[in-house]
Amino acid sequence: EYHMPSALAEKLHKLLLQDFSSGKRPPGSIINRRQVAAEYNVSVTPVLEAMTMLELEGFLEVIPRKGTQIKPITQHNITGNFVLRDALESKAARIYFGNKIKQNLDYLLKYAEKVNAAPEDNLDDWKLEISFHHELVSLAGYPILTESYDRIMQLYLFHGMNQLIPTHLKTPRDDHVLLIQNLMNAE
Question: Of the chain's two ends, which shows fewer C-beta atoms within 10 Å, N or C?
Fold first, then answer.
């Protein structure tokens, strides 16, 4: 039986994701729910809820007789996440191109210019670019598609901030203004 996580569990979920992305809790390390509860001055129950969510999202794994581990990052998982991200963005673009781009053109072009102007070397810049692509995916009008994209991008941030995205998968930042222009003219 599924129940919605509490507001406190949702907050802890976000805090733990920040810890993972910042490197405060690195891949491969053991995470103890009682220690997390003490650290955030909460009971164990919302921590367990948050950790269950993180396990379902692919950040944690339970190791018998060892505890809960922040999943080590493997080349196979990184490549799979890139393929999934590409598939989600491509499918969304097939749905929203043309008129939806034209309807939001001023907003999207300003946003694209802001992304183009940002450097590529810190968490805030990565979040800005991810937010831009979130906006594009959301134009498709399917919340499940946007939610799936957001989950994949959390893993992307985790991989990237832990500097584990292999060089051959890194690409220079694309011109986001050109992307919007191409999507507008794709009818």
Answer: N
Of the candidates 29, 36, 84, 89, which has an alpha carbon nearest to the alpha carbon of residue 59?
29
> In a structure prediction context, what are the per-residue pLDDT tens digits for the chain, which is 187 residues long?
556 778 999 999 999 988 887 778 888 899 999 999 999 999 999 999 999 999 988 889 999 988 999 988 777 777 888 888 899 999 998 888 888 888 999 999 999 999 988 876 666 777 888 899 999 999 999 999 999 999 888 887 777 666 554 444 455 667 888 888 888 776 5
Query: Strands, DSSP E only, in 28-178?
Result: 30-31, 60-63, 67-70
Token pair in block for residue 32: 């103890």
Please give the Cα distance from 21 to 160 (Å, whole number): 8
Helix, strand, or coil here: 104? coil
